[in-house]
Amino acid sequence: MILPVASVVTEKTIIEFLLLKESLEQYHSCKWFISCDKATYDALNTYNNITFLIKIKTDDADHNIGNEIQKDNWMNIMMTKFDAVEMAIKQEGHVLFLDSDMIFVNPIEEKILSLFLNKDIDACICPHMTNDPFNEAKHGYYNAGMFHVKNLNLIEEWRNLSKNYKTLNFYFEQQPLEYVQRNFVCLNLPINYNIGWWRFNNEKTQKRLDSLVVVDDKINFGKLPAVNFHFHIARELAYQNFGKFLLDKVEQLFNLANNEKYKHIQAKIKEATK
Q1: Range of the domain at 49
Q2: What per-residue confidence (pLDDT) applies to 18?
Q3: Cα–Cα distance between 148 and 160 in angstroms, integer?
Q4: Which domain CATH number covers 52?
Q5: 208-226 pLDDT tens trace
Q6: Of 98, 54, 59, 64, whose CA–CA distance to 77 is shortest?
Q7: Where does residue 1 rank: exposed (0-12), middle (13-18), buried (19+ CB within 10 A)?
């Protein structure tokens, strides 16, 4: 199976995107659809498995501490995810969307891949799973950095609701997913997918770090294979890297595992951050 994958990439995120691409392609053959800026196209156009959609004019953007112009730029960048996803669905019938700041440490399980191909399922989405209802009420119940979708109507509804995020007091394009998914057949991916730093950063969830262990030279999240982690690795940030503790934990687990794929991606990370 060749897996269609969409992402959003700018000049600032090229290095992290290449780590994502390298790590995922250790387990799956992929066909990529990315919305990007001209600098990204110039840097990556030699890859024969990437289709480019040059939609981004500036990556002077920040959604955390930026001014209003930078926040608007961020939203403009994020809105291009719908263009990349739509292009992939029209060509391939379905697509997995991934934020560029991820790495894969295990393959997507066959049972999940079969759901991707099930025509009765519109989308597979990822709850934040923070155990923090007040934070999720502010930022959205679901993380919009990883989802699989095959229904164009879902994307159109999500796009239209996101356009009005200020009027509706939504958190960018992420929070609208919470409302759009109610109209479609959507499945939640389990906790071993899209393992973001936010799942470990409060008193209720810090103990989860102890569930990240090496079993048979592979990283597990408890009894489940840890499929992919979501944190910044190489992007220069204007604020604290809140996911650094999780990156450090994964590096420790890499060192405990006798796994050639881990050694390969670890070398790539070292090269990217030197």
Answers
A1: 2-273
A2: 98
A3: 19
A4: 3.90.550.10
A5: 999 999 999 999 999 999 9
A6: 59
A7: exposed
* Single-letter code of the amino acid located at 80: T
Q: How far apart are the first and last CA of the chain?
A: 35
Q: Which residue has the tokens 């991934």?
A: 98
- Pairing type for strands 102-104 and 95-98 reads unpaired
Give the span between the Cα atoms of 139 and 141, in whole angstroms.
Answer: 7
* Alpha-carbon distances, residue 165 vs 69, 116, 118, 175, 197 (angstroms): 15, 29, 31, 9, 25
Question: Given a cut of 80, is residue 62 above it in pLDDT?
Answer: no
Burial group, residue 225, by CB count within 10 angstroms (0-12, 13-18, 19+):
middle
How far apart, in whole angstroms, are the C-alpha atoms of residue 31 and residue 194?
20
How far apart are alpha carbons 147 and 158 in whole angstroms? Answer: 13
Q: How many domains does the chain have?
A: 1
Q: Which residue has the tokens 């196209």?
A: 41
User: Does the predicted TM-score (pTM) go above 0.90?
Assistant: yes
3 state SS of 230: strand
Copy the structure tokens of residue 168.
């509706």
pLDDT in tens, 90-99: 999 999 999 9
Average pLDDT in the 34-38 region? Answer: 97
